[in-house]
Amino acid sequence: MPLVPTPPRPTKAEDDDEGGRGLLLVDSLSEETGYHDRHPIGKTVWARLLLGSPSKESACTS
Asked: What is the spatial distance between Cα 40 and Cα 35, in angstroms, rounded to a whole number?
């Protein structure tokens, strides 16, 4: 029986967890997200970001 693809979903990370926040961060920083199945196993997650001109406060001056 073939595996049914499932979309990636964020998990609830506790304060002392070392992982579990990646999709939450990607989702909060991006305009659009999605995924593609990878065969034979896995998924590739993608994100579309809106980039603007840096402000004077955030510009790197080194």
From this structure: 15
